[in-house]
Amino acid sequence: MRILGDYHHSSRIAFVEFTMDWRRVMWTWNSLKSQFLYAVLLEGNL
């Protein structure tokens, strides 16, 4: 049953890494989106 435990541990690590990557992607997307909206607002005010 030790192999099953190792598999569960590695899958949990992979899930944590995936979640971290997803959060980084979402953070990057949100920052880009806010920059884009800010630029659009500036263009609209000119």
**Helical percent range?**
over 70%
Q: Average pLDDT across residues?
A: 86
Strand segment tally: 0
Which percent band covers the strand fraction? under 5%
Order of helices and strands: H
Number of helices: 1
Instruction: Tell me the structural class.
Output: mainly alpha
Straight-line N-to-C gap: 68 Å
Domain module count: 1
Query: Which outline best applies?
Result: rod-shaped
- Return residue spans where pLDDT drops below 50 for at least 5 consecutive residues: none
- Taking all Cα atoms into account, the compactness measure Rg is 20 Å
Largest sheet: none
Topology overview:
Layout: H1 2-45
Protein architecture, described:
With 46 residues, this protein is mainly alpha-helical. 96% of the residues lie in helices and 0% in strands. It contains 1 helix and no strands. The chain has one helix spanning 2-45.
